[in-house]
Amino acid sequence: MPENNLTIAGAIAKLKEKSQSVKLPDGLIESLNELFAQLEVNSKSEDTFWSFYQSASKYIDWVIKLPWTNQSKDILDLNYTRQKLDENHYGLDDVKQRIQEYVSVLALQKTRHPEEPFRAPILLFVGLVGTGKTTMAKSIADVLGRQLIRIPFGGLGDPLYLRGQSRLHPEAEPGAIIRGLAQVKTNNPVILLDEIDRVADDALNTIMGVLVELLDPEQNARFTDHYLDYPFDLSQCFFVATCNNTARIATAVMDRLEVIQMPSYNDEEKVMIGKKYLLPRALKDSAITKDELIINDDVWPNIVRPLGFDAGVRTLKRNIEGLCRKTAALILSGTTKIVIDESNVKKFMPQW
């Protein structure tokens, strides 16, 4: 059906005007001219035209959303890098040093050889659950001043989720990469490929094949999404991947990655993380002031390890959040100050 009582000629003119509202690659402009020619051919039959018009309009909407030329400006300051990393992560000095080294290389590349193609390292953070892999990837986006696209791979069973579907399918849309680029509106974001070792078994080989194309500098400059059907340059993106272990990752993918091992935290480090990072955030999220909840130093070991060893800090985070929820309930019941010590810590901790 016509939109807003548009005539066929008006509808075609509207799409042409929309396609000219942004700067597009020459090859894509040629493809759109072919699309407009097809619209002209279909204009002889009104029913056929409006069906084709809906598909063409949706496609052009996606095309003009994409950041073909828009880039964010990098922050390449080592002092700022270290400051942001220390704000978000306790310890992990070796990992932080590696990231500072990569930022240093990027700074030299852009200063001394600005005309040469930019090639960011492709990092793989390997470590147990809760050791900070995903948050470290987010910190890289922060220190560079770039947008972040997170693509979860856990349980992923269809490579079309990454590549998109052909426009021949009625409900087709671009894949996760192109959708993410349209959302962040820059062509050089940090793209986090999260938990790439946890894809579905029956799709492992095909998804690894897509990863090879994504992570190969010789190929990702012309990454083709099935829906877009035109190459998009991903060579300016900073790819970061995470996994628990590398056993299920194809050798061809591993060859393109620089592995950074995320160490487990000991109890002393967890106490510092709990005090310095997790508790202040949990208090803020729970609208509790630091004067309303006091945790004595001697009970932190109970909070860190109430039920046994945990390599990461997710259990610690849940324990602190649960403690704050119990505190909030007591405050609403009339208690003005809660002090957690050895006499009452078990009441605030999970017991199984």
Topology, element by element:
Elements: H1 8-19, H2 26-42, H3 46-65, H4 78-88, H5 93-112, E1 123-126, H6 133-144, E2 148-152, H7 160-163, H8 176-184, E3 190-194, H9 204-215, E4 223-224, E5 231-232, E6 238-243, H10 251-254, E7 258-261, H11 267-285, E8 293-295, H12 300-304, H13 314-332, E9 338-340, H14 345-348
Parallel strand pairs: 1-6, 1-7, 2-3, 3-6, 8-9
Antiparallel strand pairs: 4-5
Question: Can you tell me about this structure?
Answer:
The protein has 352 residues and is an alpha/beta fold. It has 14 helices and 9 strands. The chain has 3 domains: 58 residues; 184 residues, 3-Layer(aba) Sandwich (Rossmann fold); 82 residues, Helicase, Ruva Protein, domain 3. Strands 2-3-6-1-7 form a 5-stranded parallel sheet, sandwiched between helices. A two-stranded antiparallel sheet has the order 4-5. Strand 4 and strand 5 form a beta hairpin. Helix 11 crosses helix 13. The N and C termini lie far apart (62 Å).
Number of DSSP helices?
14
Rg estimate, integer Å: 26 Å
Our estimate of the beta-strand percent is: 5-15%
Helix content: 40-55%
What general form does the structure show? elongated
Number of domains: 3
Please give the alpha-carbon distance between the first and last residues. Answer: 62 Å
Listing every helix as H and every strand as E from the N terminus to the C terminus, the arrangement reads: HHHHHEHEHHEHEEEHEHEHHEH
CATH topology of the largest domain: Rossmann fold
Q: Strand pairing plus helix content: what structural class?
A: alpha/beta
Strand ordering within the main sheet? 2-3-6-1-7
If classified by CATH, what would the architecture of the largest domain be? 3-Layer(aba) Sandwich
Mean pLDDT: 89
Biggest pleated sheet: 5 strands, parallel
**Name of the top-level CATH class of the largest domain:** Alpha Beta
By DSSP, the count of extended strands is 9
Name the CATH superfamily classification of the largest domain: P-loop containing nucleotide triphosphate hydrolases
Low-confidence stretches: none
